[in-house]
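Structure tokens please, single chain.
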Amino acid sequence: MTAKEMFEILQYDFTNNSNATYTLTKNLVYRGKEDCNDEWQEIVFNLEDKTIDIYKCKGIKRAIEHITSHRSNISLELLQAINKQVEELGWNKWKLNMYGTMI
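Here you go.
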């Protein structure tokens, strides 16, 4: 099963950069379904610096407000989907430079 299929089972949709909350860098974004409070979660894989951000978002009349003060919890199933995406992107292969630091 692919990461995309795992995210789909968890009701996360793949979103291209034009629809994503953050579009400043090349991202792979999965957006969760909105709940009854118009809130959703976004899992953002930054393809340039190889980081993963998890955002708790709230929609307000076409504007988007990020709730940065709230911690965002993830389920074990969601963590497994994130790990699968990391594997598919090849980010789980550590490379060390001649000084022994990760590159």
